[in-house]
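Title: [Solved] PITH domain-containing protein 3D structure

Original question kept below for reference.
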Amino acid sequence: MAHSGPFRCECGQLHGLEFQGPSNDLLPYIDTPGVSALNESVGGACRRVFKPYDQRLEHEGFVDSEDDDPQLLLHIPFTCPVNIRSLHLVGGEEGATPRELRAFVNHETLDFSDAELMPPVQQWDIAPTDPTGTLEYPTQFTRFKNVTRLYLFVANNHGAEQTRIRYIGLKGTGTDHKREAVKNAVYELKPTPETNALKDQTSARIG
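Solution (posted by the thread starter after getting help):
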């Protein structure tokens, strides 16, 4: 399992790469209406974290996990296959920023039990704070080519009862080969009684 995050240099401080702005921003390739999440406190709020880079620090537009449960599972479809070079995330305050973030690519469906048991293509340790919103988390690029669906699993945060995400940015290139739309398809994660039961079991096990 690939594992990466900001770098700690000889001075003892935590440093990350800096996001260089909208160049190679994959926002135009994200199928924003199709973005969905499991365990969000307000349905559809996850779509609001995909916004222009210059709005990354704005307090309007965020997604929270449910009360007393920091986990989130986001599904991000693209309008065409993309190559993802890095990820950028701005979280909440007072421990609400995601800590352990796992990525999965090109699965038709994914639920919490899958995300807990399957090895991710990459895992990042997210810094607890990023006041300027410039930390960037590189991908293992060969594992993120021709991505049509990206799942991001927030396994835990930095100690808060809820997780908050204000902004997610993806940097890379689009292929411009449009994905064939499936008529009447709804690209949305929908919890089922079985999924909720598994989630409750997982939470009890983690707790």
